[in-house]
Amino acid sequence: MIAPETLAALLIASGALAAAVRLLLRRHSWQAWLLAALSLASGLLLYLALFPPLLPIGGETLLVATAETPAGTRAKPGERLVALPEAPALAGAERVPDLATALRRHAQVQAIRILGRGLTDRDRDSDAGLPTRFTPMALPRGLVRLAPPMDTPAGSVFALAGEAAGMEGGTAELLDPAGRKVDVRVIGPDGAFTLGGTARVPGLAAFTLRLRGQDKAIVSDTPVPLRTLAEQPLRALLIGAPSPEAKYLRRWAEDSGIELQSRLEAGGGVDLGDSGVRIDAASLREVDVVIIDDSALAGLGSGGRGALAQAVAGGLGVVVRMTAPASAGSRDIWRELGLLVEGGSDVAPVALPPLAPDAEALLDRRGPGSADVPQDVNTIEDPAPDLGRFAVRTGAQVVPVVTDADGGMVSGWQQRGQGRVALWTVANSFALVLNGQADRYEQWWSQTLSALARPDSLFRPVVPALVLAGERMAICEIDATARVIASDTVEVALAVDPAAGARGCAAYWPSQPGVHTIVQTAGDSQQTFAFLVLPETALGPITARETGEATARWAAQQDAPAARALPERRGPAWPWFLGWLLLSGALWWGERRLRANPLA
Amino acid sequence: MSHEVRLHDWVRPAQRRAASDLVLVWSPLVLVLGALAWAVGGGLLAAGVLVAGAIALGWTAARRMGQLDRGWLVRRLNAREAQLEDSAALLFADADLAPLERLQADRIAARIQSVDPLSLADGWSRRSIALAWGLGAMALAAIIVWQAQRGAAPPLAAVPDSQATAPGEPRLTGQRVRIVPPAYTGLPARYADSLDIRAPMGSRIEWTLGFDPPPASAALQLVGGQRVPLAPGDEGWAGSLRLDVPSLYRVTAEGMRAAQPSHRLEPIADEPPQVRVIEPASGLVTMQPGQRSWRVVFEASDDYAVDRLARLTVTTAIGEGENVRFSERSQSVSGTGDARRRRFSIDLPLGAYGLQPGSDLVAQLTVADTRSPGPQVVRGPGVILRFPAPRPPDAEGLDLMAKQQMPAYFRSQRQVIIDTEALIKQRRNLSADEFMLRSDTIGVDQRLLRLRYGQFVGMEAEEKPRPPLPTSDKEAPAAKAEPEHYDGDGHDHSQDRKPPAFGALGDITAEYGHVHDESEAATLLDPGTRALLKAALDAMWEAELNLRSGRPEAALPFENKALDYIKQIQQATRIYLPRIGSQQPPIDMARRLTGKREGIVGGAAQLTPFAIEDAVPATAWRALAQPGAIDLGGLDAWVRGNSARIRDPLAVLAAIDALRAAPASQALREQLRARLWTVLTRPPAQVRRRHDGGATGRRYVQGLR
Question: Theoretical Cys-Cys bridge with B236: which of A121, A426, B210, B507, CB 3.0 to 4.6 Å?
Fold first, then answer.
């Protein structure tokens, strides 16, 4: 089927050509030539009057005012100003409940320009279909980025990262729930900082991130939730020779609730550990992690090592503790287990970062002491011990868990099957305990074993790290029995979205701040998981930055050609029609003159 | 020739008059000063001031009397008595007179009989005396009135924030809290500024409270504890309590409806005394040949008072190798000096202990403070006197098997730093000279410390204390040597050389040269330790230099650096086994030498979990996050039971109490939860198992090859 434009063009062109040729056949003068050209032009104008060209005709631009739009904003000619609910009061602006309503009311607009901080989630859900311009505002002064700590084991160290805008020379302080300063950093030119603290018993604590300007005035206080989960006791097996390291490992395991069995060969068939520890497939299935020193591993024999390697593939974690420089033989043994490292025969010093920024912060991090270990027995001035690590070289397949201040690997693991094998490169790490840094020693081992141990499938729903009241959130990894108990004891059953597939996600819209609990029934037991909902305004500059960035991305998508599916509009036809009329009139008059005066 | 006119008779009356006049005029001032001293400093000071005043008055009077001499008398006689014809000088002349002069003198001598010597004296200065005594009496009266007022109790102080009360409801209008510390502290009674009280433990607290309108009865309610009823008195309601445990209290009166704010009762615990060794300067002293007695000086300090009597324990370890006998004797010694800082100096007669070469004598002082009941007894550091053992014969190849450890008996560099910091802080209150003096004193301390550490790198001793091990320094000065090497600089060659013995051929250095370092102590330190020690000594030297030139601020960084080095050294070589009583496990003779290993492990190594009982606050802390009732009673009891460990138990108790009064308040729950965080102990870092990623995660890992 031929398009109407083409048909019309063919007809008009043939008509105009016929008229011009006829004129030229009858006369051979310059007038005839002029009239022929005019008739061709008239044909063209006729076509344009019928089908006006797709000229870029400037339609109306929709000015969308969002939060923090400058007060003096006015619509210029060709613009129309609408204000979204979060925008401030603007003279001459039309209030709309959302962007979609504005677009529906003003179907004639050709472009959108967004003013202020940007569109909220509500308006970014669907495309506007119009070219959109948006210039993000400068970041507000204060905390613009916050990575809150992950779920932390009880008693462990946690870290959080953040970024502040316009705060160079100020300080970022971490206050514990009692309001005591546990860490402090000076904010550099790039604004990024990391802070650390220690967790206590399982529960949900709210730390505070306080920013101070150069003049020490408080700029902002941001709540930082810290979740500490109660864990199933870990089942560990310690194999090696009696040594200080074994002694302090057992002490730590006993105190931190690890079910530890040990086999400590004192030579001559004397075992100082628990008797009856065997290494075979059946007994290794009952163990989550094995800590074995390198010589004990070599002495296991190929059968024992084979059983261990099998168990690793089935999910067991194994820590190989180096007590001597690595040799080619020992590296081969490790390779059988699934750990590929090179080197390890030289000793490099371990650079220990300070435990806390100052003495007061260290006391607050350690918490109250006991009768046996008074709080003031170890001070921050005590010198750090000299530790040495065997400098092993690893590829990308080995993931470091504990590193020293210079990035040297203290321990790192490699995946094999469902399990992991790790290498502990510090032979004298027990010296930390002897020098009053038992907390660092425990932290290192805790991190290593946490990365290593056989995985479990506890109830751990996935919730966003920072949840604000009044904002919709997604809760994943739940089943149909899950419900949320809000801080005011109102219970809401969660409806799992079938579209989310196997992840089992549901939406939840917290209405007020406080501790919310997800409860899920499994069999006859109830599993709970708590999360903290922050007040709506808690993350002001962070929300502003996120809104700005998301709006900029959204606006860029609107500009992209793919999104421009709207039918193109033709320009007005009357100018062309007028031109055609005038030209046709002139042509008619010219032809009459020519006919009336054939000899001219 | 009888003009025996004695000058003395003529001058004496005038002198007496002048002296008594002066004393009468000025003695009121002395009396007033004495009274002031009595009011401010007590009887002793008053007596001192009076004596000093009397001496000053006496001296001035004597000066005044001395001015009334012959010249004065002659001038006065000539001026007053015309009949003497200006010739009085002749009567009192010492020298022989010319005949004419003698004639005139005789004439005058007859006339002078009619003159009364007393008439020559100046009259009483009545006006000054009256004025002085009048003013003195007024001043004395003022002092007496002032003293009388000071002894009386001040009026009740207003209570700052009275709550709004309904009409007719009793309201606390005035308070006065008197704190009477226990007698042994020697502190005077004082009045507290507010109802929050901090006082020495065992103090008696006396409240006097005013209410408006007067209630029927009133009491002090200790939070979670007893009730102290108040008795009405002249000034208000009074009651008292002995302050022993920290607690909170609130004032209640019959008819009060609103919840009253709670106040703190915080005792300040008595610190145990501290013992410091003054002499000898190092913890280990080598006995000098022929030494008969050993002088040990300890200094004990306490926050209130150190008991005058202390016990000195002398432990001797006599013998060598495994054959060491221990014996312990103790004796009472009495200290001198200020009660808060007593010095105990003891001269130990060494003959009584029967020391032999290679034996040790350890002296330790046990002091007590005056706390009652139950004085706190503290055993101080021990100082060791070592009878040097004869050098063991040299053995080839054993160098590395015997590692000489540096003894860890040091006075602390940290103390020097603390002293310096204190001095810098007090700088504004000290005169320049005093500041310099104190800085210099710390400098001396620093120097002693430097010398002591210096011994271990063989620093040639500048003076006593000598290195603990023998050197080739000789005792008596020798003849003059070349200018660079003078006597006693350590470069002398040993003269009191022992006769060569068979087999003692190794000691070439001692025979022909001299060692610059300690053969025992220094060369056996590993090079790293030696380098550290040297660096520490350099820093100490700089610190000493700055201290002694009165710039403690400049010295502080060096002191800190030195401390850092010393700490590193001590960490490196801190192995010190005291030679005091050891108990070996008994030997099982039945098993000995059988070679059987069965059952030699005494039960599998069992560990006792080292757990801190904080389940109660942990449960409460979790429960407070959600609405619901809290076991405040249990929490309260737990905090009271553990208050010794917690830094500020009263703050937690106050938060518990506030919540108990208003259980529904969300803000108070939050506050208590925040307080509980300070109470929670940090458990040993636990292990968090990784998540297996659910079914998807497991499939993914299985797919990895």
Answer: B210
